[in-house]
């Protein structure tokens, strides 16, 4: 249910639900209407004309990611565009299941892969089923999900203390090699087991499914105690067997473990995650660019990896490490939203399908179809990664990153304002509406946050950026019949050093918090390269050297006062969260 509200004057600054509306267009645009509405997986935007391509990820992985993303984006926006194509995605998705409960890749006559249940795909499958059931309560979806989770448990090789998968693909005849089972081979446990914990845990929380929580327990034990994915100092194992320290699967596994640690209240597991997360941060830029891996793909940032960083940071913040709220906000404000493709004037495409290869490649209106998508492989300063190191230029979009980017928007949106036992906390200083209050952010133009209270709040907390200090923070509380002024110099107003404790807030109250903006410069290092970033608050407003194809950051405009626009925030009485 949504509270109806009229439009009002709001700051024309970052609004995550608006960005979710843009990505909806790309999710729908990826559908290949000439090939059963199977979504394209990748795009090369540098070629003239640009083109979209299919691949072996088209099936459980792409459909699962996009169905999950559509559910989250619609929850954020209420946007109903593309429902017909979404129904085609859902029908395709369900058709990939065999009687054994697993989702299988399909045979494409023009490509060399064979039908199999890829274990990476299964993570996207249970992710989509969980969001689908959470949003609809559809009992048929739950039956499919229960059967799927039972299959994931059935095919796992079970040791006394850990469970694992001995190969990356399961076939209708079983594991392809009995020898692999006997030798206890577990190819890339992070990719095939660790990342599964995240959606399995959420599914357990929703349904109480006992198979799901068992998988979480034994897969977590595998990663922490037996796998060797993470070294004792927290660094990633960069051996070839571990995909050269592939960042997306490593940090995705940390996200899963952080959630499981919170669920089980396991302080030692939280510490395990924090150690590796801090190591990962040391390999990334402070604005959110991540390496692809530690060797061959090192230069190629995946939006997927950044969203894993966002999600893990949020879980650690909820576990008490509140310093990660500010780190995550930098990621949201910078590389996540900068990686969203909104300007496509530089892309050359075809206006007809005369050169298309059905089932493989399309040149048709690529720019229009890709608008709103997130970068698949980007450089720190450019949407397109075309460096001389690593693999050179490969592709610019990937469906997995479109899905993950949407999830990143949702994670930021759903954790901007949180409530626990009567305490409402504003964690990110972003525009956001809720049943408790609206937050209007004037950043990065002004150090100014306005709170409009909709109902009585027993205790209200607002996070203040560490660069704002405390001496010059001012709070003005307009309760209609009285105006109260407070300052951050009062030590009793602070909680955990970073949160301003405003006490009880009353319905109808308007609270304005102001603080000085920080302008500074940092030197960022990314795989042997150096970049100079100029910051205003938590926003990068200039980055050098500049990119060449579709440069990042250098078109951001700031002024002394935030521009305003007429709009309204989405305000739901009931929200779901991940």
Question: Can you put this structure into words, describing what you see?
Answer:
The protein has 578 residues and is α+β, with helices and mostly antiparallel strands. It contains 15 helices and 25 strands. The two termini are 19 Å apart. Keywords: Hydrolase.
Distance between the termini: 19 Å
Poorly predicted ranges: none
**Major sheet, described briefly?**
5 strands, mixed
Strand order of the largest sheet: 12-13-16-20-19
Mean pLDDT over the full residue set: 95
Shape: globular
Work out the radius of gyration: 23 Å
Structure annotation, total helices: 15
Count the beta strands. Answer: 25
SS content category = alpha+beta
Please state roughly what percent of the residues sit in beta strands, choosing from under 5%, 5-15%, 15-25%, 25-35%, 35-45% or over 45%: 15-25%
Helix content: 25-40%
Task: Please specify the SSE layout and strand pairing.
Elements: E1 8-11, H1 16-29, E2 31-32, E3 38-39, E4 42-44, E5 51-53, H2 60-77, H3 83-95, E6 117-118, H4 119-136, H5 139-155, E7 157-158, E8 163-164, E9 169-170, H6 178-182, H7 189-192, H8 197-207, H9 210-226, H10 247-264, H11 267-281, H12 303-318, H13 324-338, E10 361-362, H14 366-370, E11 397-398, H15 399-416, E12 417-420, E13 423-426, E14 437-441, E15 448-453, E16 457-463, E17 474-478, E18 483-487, E19 494-495, E20 499-505, E21 510-514, E22 519-526, E23 529-536, E24 539-544, E25 564-567
Parallel strand pairs: 13-16
Antiparallel strand pairs: 1-25, 2-3, 4-5, 4-11, 5-10, 6-9, 7-8, 12-13, 14-15, 15-21, 16-20, 17-18, 17-21, 19-20, 22-23, 23-24
